Structure prediction request, 424 residues.
Amino acid sequence: MEEDLGRVEHAHRWHQQQRVAVDAELAQARRDLGQALLPSFHPKAIERAVSLTGYSPLVHENLAARAAAEETQLAGQIAAIEADRRYWDAERDKSLRGLTPALHVARLTQQQRAFDDFVRSAEHPRLQRLCDLEYGTPRYDVGWWRLSHHQDKSGAEEILKRFPAFGGDFARFAAELGRCRAASAQLGRDLGAAQAVERMLGEHERLVEARRTTKDRWLAWARERIVSHVLGTEPSAMSKWLEREPPTRLIFLRASGLTAKVSYLDGLFQRDVGQMAVELRERHAKLSKLEAAYARRPRVMPAEQFAKAFVDKRPKYQARLARFSKGYQRVHGFDRFHAGRGVEDLLWWDVMTDGRLDGSFLPDVSTFRQTHPDYSYERPDRSFFKEPKDEGLDLSDYDEPSPEVLASASDSGADHAMHQSDAS
Prediction:
């Protein structure tokens, strides 16, 4: 059983490794698809994306205006920071003295720590009383015959033992302690101001970067939405819609196939390895409990019970692992996603396995067969499995809109926002 558990753990690690690689492929395929479907915010690009995919929200969301509005907002926040004299003082120090805000904060922290270490080393239950009564000076007026006088003297001696440099002069020590406390307090104020400047410059840097990447971020957000819509649509229907743009269709088929591959690999693992792991652990716990029961009261286990409890299930487990390996390697090794062009009703499981493996245990496959009761897999013509000619995808007509177009979009977006505000 330990050997079987070892095989299961090995299969689990192997599956995780393969998933990392496939996930990276899928992520790149999604990016490629997003870029192919929506190369920019140009009105023609948006019109084309909606026409190709049927994703109409792109028309109403006015993404170019929203991106331009965010850029304007960020520019205002940047200007507010740059209007603060502290910003330019910090920039000057960084330029002329090489003193960055972080370095300034580090130096102040180090200086304050030195004073704080001295103050902490002097801590004593009687310290504050001695300082308040100005012990060691003529102004200390507690009579020598009083118990508190002897307690003060003892406390002062205990403190001064830690600081031999003061030669037993508590008044000089108290003066130095006061100076350290004042210096630490001032450094604390300076440190707070320096940290505020550091945060301000960090916020300025973040805002500048956000403004620089505004269009890219909005475009990436829009692309992710349209890609999710496309990959959530039945592959057969989307493949037919994209027939008019063969290069885009090929990019879609790759992303769609990789999405299915991830789902199939997880399903294969769960059916053959995940369930097997659960069964092995349950059986291991049951046998351990049985052995413990007989160990407490040594006696011979009936032959029938022994045969039932310790039946050899290795052939069964080995068969399941062999089935897992066969199906997993078939799906994992498939990369001719362009073959999907030759399938009328596109079920990736049948394309990947050539219709030779039962996939009814997979929810996607089961749902597909229920919604397509007359479906019967027909292997695509051999020509569809050949690498198609790279026709390229010319997106030059969909470059970024001109500044005039963006300005117009920004104005309309601002008007829309005002109307919404009035309505609310």
The chain has two domains: 2-37+233-379, 80-217. Residues 409-424 have pLDDT under 50 and may be disordered. The chain has 17 helices and no strands.
